[in-house]
Specification:
Elements: H1 7-12, H2 14-25, E1 28-33, E2 36-41, H3 44-53, E3 58-60, H4 64-71, H5 80-90, H6 96-100, H7 103-116, H8 118-123, E4 126-128, H9 129-146, H10 154-171, H11 184-209, H12 217-223, H13 235-265, H14 268-282, H15 296-308, E5 315-319, E6 323-325, E7 328-330, E8 335-338, H16 340-343, H17 363-368, H18 387-404, E9 405-409, E10 417-419, E11 423-425, E12 430-435
Parallel strand pairs: 2-8
Antiparallel strand pairs: 1-2, 3-5, 4-12, 5-8, 6-7, 9-12, 10-11
The structure holds protoporphyrin IX containing FE.
């Protein structure tokens, strides 16, 4: 369209529009979206160039400004020296050996969910797996990284985050002013933001009242001192980072799990193979960190699920100075769109791209593929800090729950991917819980 360009199409159907454009026009596709111009990248080399090789020439795009209205200027949204400082403060909490020590808390949370499913399984009543996984991953972040609970905000946080996610997700593609008009919708957004803020302040106040020596992520954030000034993080900045971790840690991991349950319910072959692997390796006991090395198929299932339904379905950068991409000039100020949803289903990179085939992630097949054909956690310096944490949590959760339950999508339910900030199931994920067997250990 003359002035709006691709804006109306993207507003209507972001993932479909990007996917079709990549299929029809090739590796580097010019996009005009209202006043912004940029390229959609589907070539793994070009993606590596932007995210890794020439990452210094790129900042997160202005679309992240919308995210800043909730997350502030924190680890996910900040740039340059400030970002690096925050990343260095948080990084030790995500070292492999520290994460391995969190396995027990992760399986404990999964066992708790298993207990919650006992009654619906007996009654044949569906559970909303989307809600269940949000609850589970939130409790893991709170227990392992932030060491607290949400007090009076616990019951309102899921709904608040859906409202925020929808408001920001939809406003990515709006003209700016429209999403701050004092409409009922905007007021709902403000109320939801207040719930998130209350929850985060509760977590911080709790810790201040009861300082512990757990040395978890929250205590690292609270005790960090600026090398030059010796000052600690301001209250505002602390709130920003705790909000970032609470949301980034809960939402995406939960969606990875929900989409995996959905895919398993649609494919008896994969489900049976997974059940067999888990039953043989674990023999009915709770999984431990060391079991993960023997649960190779489980890892492939998780990888394949995030290929088809990448929770972070798209992200973008803005060029700080002119650059060249696959033979095209990318002028300063233009955007580069990286859309894992389209990339992960591109027929030039994947055989039968829409099919659920975990065997694609056999090590020898991964070795044949371009590393940047599969980027559910992003790549380069801004790669997800929580990737190992998230992978371990998804695997331990599935290993615990698959032993006991088999989930079936509620007959007649329409599953519709909803690309907001994250890729959610638009109408939830109601599933019938069938009990496979009682496990003495859980
Ligand atoms: C399956 C689960 C997850 C997925 C798919 C995911 C995906 C991503 C992606 C794609 C990015 C990069 C965004 C960009 O380049 O613009 C990112 C960054 C980030 N993620 Fe995750 N994430 C997951 C889990 C987690 C967890 C568990 C945490 C924390 C506990 C976390 C915290 C963060 C943070 C703080 C950043 C910003 C890092 C930086 O810029 O230095 N994520 N994530």
């Amino acid at each position: 369209m003359p002035i709006l360009g691709m804006l109306p199409a993207i507003r209507r159907d972001p993932i479909g529009t990007f996917k079709r454009a990549a299929l029809r026009f090739g590796d580097v596709v010019y996009f005009k979206i209202a006043s912004r111009r940029g390229f959609l990248l589907s070539n793994p080399d070009a993606i590596r160039h932007v995210l890794q090789d020439n990452a210094r020439n790129y900042h997160k795009s202005p679309l992240y400004d919308k995210l800043r209205t909730v997350l502030g200027n924190g680890l996910l949204t900040s740039e340059d020296e400030f970002w690096l400082r925050q990343r260095r403060i948080a990084q030790p909490a995500f070292h492999r050996h520290r994460i391995a020590a969190l396995a027990g808390a992760m399986t404990e949370a999964a066992a708790d969910t298993a207990g919650r499913w006992d009654a619906p399984a007996s009654a044949g009543r569906p559970v909303d797996v989307d809600e269940e996984m949000m609850r589970l991953t939130r409790s893991v972040v709170l227990n392992t990284l932030l060491g607290g609970d949400l007090g009076p905000f616990a019951s309102r946080i899921d709904q608040a985050w859906v409202v925020v996610n929808q408001h920001i997700g939809e406003s990515f593609w709006s003209l700016g002013f429209a999403d701050t008009l004092p409409t009922p919708k905007y007021r709902r957004f403000q109320a939801a933001r207040a719930v998130l803020r209350g929850a985060v302040e509760h977590v911080i106040a709790q810790r201040r009242r009861n300082p512990t020596d757990t040395n978890d992520l929250l205590s690292m954030l609270m005790s960090a001192r600026d090398e030059e000034t010796g000052e600690s993080m301001s209250d505002d900045q602390l709130r920003v980072e705790v909000t970032t971790f609470l949301l980034a840690g809960q939402e995406t991991t939960s969606l990875a799990l929900t989409w995996t349950w959905y895919l398993l319910s649609q494919d008896a072959r994969v489900r049976q193979r997974l059940e067999t692997e888990i039953d043989v390796v674990l023999e009915g006991r709770r999984p431990e960190y060391s079991d993960l090395a023997n649960l190779a198929y489980l890892r492939m299932v998780v990888d394949e699920s995030m290929r088809l339904y990448p929770p972070a379905w798209g992200f973008s950068r803005q060029a700080l100075s002119d650059d060249e991409l696959g033979g095209f000039r990318l002028p300063k100020g233009w955007l580069a769109f990286v859309i894992p949803y389209a990339l992960h289903r591109h027929p030039a990179l994947w055989d039968d791209p829409d099919a659920f085939v975990p065997e694609r992630f056999l090590p020898e097949r991964v070795a044949e593929r371009h590393k940047f054909a599969y980027i559910p956690f992003g790549a380069g310096p801004r790669q997800c800090i929580g990737n190992h944490f998230a992978l371990m949590e998804t695997q331990l959760t599935l290993a615990t729950l698959v032993q006991q339950y088999r989930l079936h999508l509620l007959p007649g339910h329409t599953v519709n991917p909803w690309p907001l900030i994250t890729l959610r199931p638009r109408f939830g994920m109601p599933m019938i819980v069938e009990r496979r067997r009682h496990s003495a250990s859980t």
